[in-house]
What does this fold into?
Amino acid sequence: MLQRLTRQLPLWARPEHPVLRYELGKVQRAPRRVRLLRALGIILLALALVVGSYVVATGFLTRPLGQSLTESLSAIVLYPLLILQVITRVAAVGLTANVVSEEARRQNWDNIRATPTGAELALRASWAAVFYRLRALLGIILVVRIILIFGILYDLTAFQGRYLDLLINGILPEVPLVAGVLLLSLLMTASLLLPITGIGFDAALGLLLSTFVRQRMYNSLLLMLIILFRIALVIGLAYLVSQFVNGALDVSDSTAWLLVGAYGAMGDWGLAFLNLGFYGEIWATVPYGILLGLGLLVYAMLQAMVTDQLLALAVRRAERRG
It folds into this structure.
């Protein structure tokens, strides 16, 4: 199955390509004991985050977890997964931000540039390597989303299969049930695509950064600013959305749509919307909120296009400046 998927990738993104093999071989494989200890530490940290999230979601065990399956699951995994996503995005930038300076330090960059399409292959392979190196984190992010999607499908059977009818009743704009199902499916699709396009965008941004700043110290400082901005953006959007949902933030309808959409696109990659109860509340309070799934899907596609342009720009700068 995995081989069939990799055959659909460009040649430079396949693990058997020599340039990608070279890129992946830069990181030495840790001894088995170290890998086991690392895995154990990650598991213990994940359990601690999940347990802590459960305790907080239940008001320190004083109230029920949730009224539906997706509400209960989301309450447990929302904050741990949000933290994991921020770590993944930070790692995606960090893994590519020093590509050019690192090759120059190894005195390989001139040889790479002297080879036809050498710089392009090197940068694109570095970009593809990010997905291979972060595959475990990306796998967790996607698997949890798939579980939540199955939870949504289960919740839709509530009230004798009329749960979605109740959610779309009285919203603006009024949509038929078929359109509601379609728009909900677009949200599910977007929630699976956004982590992939988001990691790709951050990796491409790191590559472009590596062509602008060659000195390692300045590169690290700029990278730190990007990381702090990324963390502040997620925290800021999460805070504003929570204030809006709780009625403490009074904004216009269009601003509310953009705020909630920005959180889904750049904050949590649509994770909160996989809680059908919360997403239904957005439909009821934000006009045209049911179109957020379509908006996120369009955003994911545009992000993929921008990522390709960032890669092309990074290649041109690397070939021109050396």
User: Anything to note?
Assistant: The CA atoms of residues 6 and 14 lie 6 Å apart. The chain is about 75% helix and 0% strand. The chain has a mean pLDDT of 85.
